[in-house]
């Protein structure tokens, strides 16, 4: 009762409260003003604050929001605020203006939001001094919200920084770590908020590559002191420990180069080098720095290639009256016109040196050389040791190497103690005579006068020889070696004709012998070649070679086949030899003549012409490739063989490879492949092969659809139904046996567990399939729900052929795995049946002890187990009446 009174009193007070509210309460469409204090602004939930949900009362949706403080983070449409975008702690106001609605007297409401100061999470930063400055605000933990930006930065000593950007350019140690604190003003409503945090900035010193100093040098005169030049002399203010790269720098620690060698190698020009200072290791903050240094080696006047010619060579008899002059000609780089001082010397049996002043004009100058330098027999060398412009030395005046010229004062040529020898030659051949032990004969060219006595005779013959180290040789023409036997050679005079040496002559008396071998006897030589087919092996048999053992035979081909001269090496046995004529020389059919033209004895090298040594032979033609036409396509089931192809006959052979290795027998079963046929002519020449493409088609055996072998026997399925269960129902044919079976009509009824053999006759290949689809059907796939099923209640086994057995009609189609048990009234089993034993003839077939086993008239009981679809066993009774 008290409880009910309390509830009633609350209702009365509620209505009294409503009656005293001002009337504008009912017209406040924007809701009531509200406030919210956020002291954990770093919380991710503050990234999406619904200001609309903070309004009191019942605000009308669809209005607009304004930020009274004009800070970031507000979505004016949705009223959602990302408060973390406001970068100062303090109090902020947001006004909601409701949409115009009739009856609204106040359509605005204000949310007052207090945000506590947030100083962020100080962290550590590492920067390179090369950057010059660093903003401390980037040193906060980037995984959380950044600090408010209205704070004060102080250094480690507590001094206030005028800017968050600090100078980091100049440090003296590899790394330097500085500490800074950041403090934000307190927001009174959140007094427990941390106001100070600390950040650490590690500055890594950038490497100093230094300032390059340019160097220019003379390539020929200034480099002697630069053979071990330290490249650090070309840098200022660099850090040590860097790596130099460039010509002649061989390792990472090398900084010395040989400018002289580099100039010799590369000549004038710029040599470019780099100096790379590595950053502080294991920091990955600063990058390596590289300075570029250039050393210039200048090019000067280059006398390289300048040549000297001095006139002239003389015989020793002319020394008293001879005069000499020299000529200098500029090299590839040229010599400027002007006055020069030339210093030269003469080296030889007599000699001296002097300096002459000359004028180069168009790169050439001539000047005399005193004959006093050349007063003995021998070789003299005139060496030009310097050429200097008389205008005075300049920096790197010349690139000069001494050059020279040789002249000779030749003695009279002498063959004293010289010996001449000659290797045996053949009749009519040129003989080479060797001169040796001519120790008094200077190197050079000479003309000799000689005569021949003995089996051959000749007088006043001349020859030119070149003497080198007391040795020389000359040739005796074959016309002076007509007779075989011994010739005696005598040199009677020698003249020096070395250019430009004058022809100095002297008498001589040098004697030697020359043996001349006879030519081979060829009167009985014969050549015979047997006939063969084009491209066959044609062997030439050579006879009549007498006692020769090794010979060279030259021959040509005439008539249907012609050739240039051919030469073969032959080994002779009992006067006979043979060789194969290259097939390339016998490209044409018909009569061909071989003509032997020359025979050489390989032992002596002597050879004889062969005249009218001929033989004619036949190059039999090869039949044309047989005309073979691609046969019509075969069916695999037809078992076609080679005998089914055209052309046919004993002259034709078939192959299954372009190599024509083994001919195929006529019984060879054809398949889809390329075959080749040749024809052999009466001369036993085989034609090229013709190729045909044999196509043996086959139709795939039919395929049975899934469960296509299963039927319901109650539907009387026929062969046509089995056809429909294949992939080719319209073209499949069925037989009752795989071999020699009977073709079954489409109306032939299927027999349970019988096997049928299906073949396909494709309209595409027009061939019956070679392979067969073998199907054993089952007629037990019947659905019991589709057919009436009953169990008879009696039978009369009296032998009148009417109802003589107890049988459940069609049960083998509906329940193929069923079992049947029949009991007498005493519970004894009389019969057990199934699909293979369906009929009870009224006799006890399961146990002995019942006399003759004939069951008497009366009531019996049965149990049928269907063993399908979880159908329960069925029990019943039946009446046996004989």
List keywords for this structure.
882 residues; mainly beta; five-stranded mixed β-sheet; 5 helices; 5% helix; flat
Can you characterise this structure?
The chain is mostly beta strands and 882 residues long. The chain is 5% helix and 39% strand. It is built from five helices and 59 strands. The strands form 18 sheets. A five-stranded mixed sheet has the order 23-30-28-25-26, with no helix packed on it. Strand 45 (590-601) and strand 46 (607-620) form a beta hairpin. It starts with a helix and ends with a strand. Mean pLDDT is 89; it is low at 1-27.
Gist of the model:
It contains 5 helices and 59 strands. With 882 residues, the chain is mainly β.
Low-confidence stretches: 1-27
Q: Classify the beta-strand content into a percent band.
A: 35-45%
Sheet of most strands = 5 strands, mixed
Question: Pairing-aware structural class of the strands and helices?
Answer: mainly beta
Which sequence of strands runs across the widest sheet? 23-30-28-25-26
What is the percent of helical residues?
A: under 10%
Distance between the termini: 94 Å
Strand element count:
59
Globular, elongated, flat, extended or rod-shaped: what is the shape?
flat
Total helix count? 5
The radius of gyration over CA amounts to 63 Å
Overall average pLDDT: 89
């Amino acid at each position: 009762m008290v409880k009910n009174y309390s509830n009633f009193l609350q209702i009365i007070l509620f209505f009294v409260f409503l009656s005293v509210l001002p009337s504008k309460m009912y017209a406040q469409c924007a809701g009531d003003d509200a406030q919210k204090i956020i002291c954990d602004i770093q919380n991710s939930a503050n990234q999406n604050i619904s200001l609309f949900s903070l309004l009191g009362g019942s605000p009308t949706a669809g209005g607009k929001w304004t930020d009274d403080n004009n800070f970031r983070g507000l979505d004016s449409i949705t009223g959602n605020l990302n408060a973390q975008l406001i970068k100062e702690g303090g109090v902020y106001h947001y006004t909601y203006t409701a949409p115009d609605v009739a009856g609204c007297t106040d359509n605005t409401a204000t949310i007052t939001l207090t945000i506590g100061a947030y100083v962020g999470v100080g962290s550590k930063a590492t920067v390179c001094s090369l950057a010059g400055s660093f903003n401390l605000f980037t040193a906060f933990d980037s995984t959380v919200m950044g600090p408010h930006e209205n704070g004060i930065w102080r250094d480690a000593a507590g001094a206030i920084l005028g800017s968050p950007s600090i100078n980091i350019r100049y440090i003296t140690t590899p790394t330097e770590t500085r500490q800074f604190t950041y403090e934000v003003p307190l927001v009174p409503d959140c007094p427990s908020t941390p106001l100070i945090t600390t950040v650490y900035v590690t500055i890594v010193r950038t490497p100093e590559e230094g300032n390059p100093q340019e160097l220019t040098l003379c390539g020929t005169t200034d480099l002697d002191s630069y053979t071990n030049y330290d490249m650090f002399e070309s840098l200022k203010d660099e850090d040590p420990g860097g790596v130099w790269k460039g010509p002649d720098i061989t390792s990472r620690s090398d900084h010395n180069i040989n400018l002289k060698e580099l100039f010799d190698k590369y000549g004038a020009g710029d040599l470019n080098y780099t100096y790379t200072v590595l950053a502080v290791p294991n920091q990955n903050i600063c990058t390596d720095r590289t300075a570029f240094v250039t050393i210039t080696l200048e090019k000067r006047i280059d006398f390289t290639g300048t040549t000297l010619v001095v006139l002239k060579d003389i015989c020793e008899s002319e020394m008293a009256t001879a005069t000499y002059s020299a000529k200098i000609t500029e090299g590839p780089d040229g010599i400027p016109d002007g006055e020069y001082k030339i210093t030269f010397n003469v080296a030889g049996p007599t000699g001296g040196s002097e300096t002459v002043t000359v004028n180069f004009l168009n790169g050439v100058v001539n000047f005399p050389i005193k004959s006093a330098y050349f007063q003995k027999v021998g070789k003299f060398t005139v060496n030009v040791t310097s050429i200097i412009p008389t205008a005075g030395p300049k920096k790197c005046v010349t690139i000069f190497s001494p050059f020279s010229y040789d002249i000779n004062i030749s003695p009279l040529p002498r063959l004293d103690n010289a010996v001449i020898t000659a290797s045996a030659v053949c009749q009519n051949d040129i003989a080479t005579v060797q001169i040796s032990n001519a120790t008094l004969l200077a190197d050079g060219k000479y003309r000799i006068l000689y005569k021949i006595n003995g089996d051959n005779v000749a007088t006043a013959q001349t020859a030119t020889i070149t003497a080198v180290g007391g040795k020389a040789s000359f040739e005796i023409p074959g016309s002076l070696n007509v007779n075989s036997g011994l010739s005696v050679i005598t040199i009677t005079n020698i003249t020096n004709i070395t250019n430009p040496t004058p022809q100095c002559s002297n008498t001589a008396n040098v004697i030697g012998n020359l043996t001349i071998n006879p030519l081979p006897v060829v009167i009985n030589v014969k050549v015979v070649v047997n006939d063969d087919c084009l491209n066959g092996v044609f062997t030439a048999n050579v006879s009549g070679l007498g006692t020769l053992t090794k010979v060279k035979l030259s021959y040509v081909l005439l008539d249907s086949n012609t050739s240039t001269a051919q030469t073969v090496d032959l080994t002779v046995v009992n006067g006979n030899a043979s060789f194969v004529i290259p097939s390339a020389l016998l490209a044409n059919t018909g009569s061909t003549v071989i003509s032997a033209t020359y025979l050489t004895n390989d032992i002596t090298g002597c050879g004889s012409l062969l005249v009218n040594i001929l033989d004619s032979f036949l190059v039999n033609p090869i039949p044309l490739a047989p005309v073979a036409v691609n046969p019509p396509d075969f069916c695999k089931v037809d078992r076609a063989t080679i005998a089914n192809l055209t052309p046919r006959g004993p002259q034709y052979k078939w192959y299954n490879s372009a190599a024509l290795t083994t001919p195929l027998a006529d019984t060879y079963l054809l398949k889809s492949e390329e075959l080749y046929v040749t024809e052999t002519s009466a001369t036993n020449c085989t034609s090229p092969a013709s190729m045909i493409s044999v196509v043996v088609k086959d139709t795939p055996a039919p395929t049975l659809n899934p469960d296509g072998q299963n039927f319901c026997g109650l539907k009387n399925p026929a062969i046509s139904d089995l056809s429909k269960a294949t992939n080719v129902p319209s073209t499949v044919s069925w037989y009752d046996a795989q071999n020699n079976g009977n073709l079954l009509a489409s109306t032939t009824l299927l027999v349970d567990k019988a096997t049928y053999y299906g073949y396909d006759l494709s309209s595409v290949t027009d061939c019956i399939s070679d392979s067969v689809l073998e199907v054993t059907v089952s007629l037990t796939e019947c659905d019991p729900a589709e057919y009436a099923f009953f169990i008879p209640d009696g039978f009369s086994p009296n032998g009148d052929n009417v109802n003589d057995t107890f049988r459940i009609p069609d049960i083998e189609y509906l329940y193929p795995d069923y079992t049947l048990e029949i009991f007498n009234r005493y519970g004894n089993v009389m019969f057990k049946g199934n699909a293979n034993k369906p009929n009870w003839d009224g006799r006890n077939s399961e146990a002995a002890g019942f006399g003759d086993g004939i069951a008497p008239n009366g009531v019996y009981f049965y149990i049928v187990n269907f063993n399908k679809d979880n159908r329960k066993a069925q029990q019943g009774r039946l009446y046996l009446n004989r």
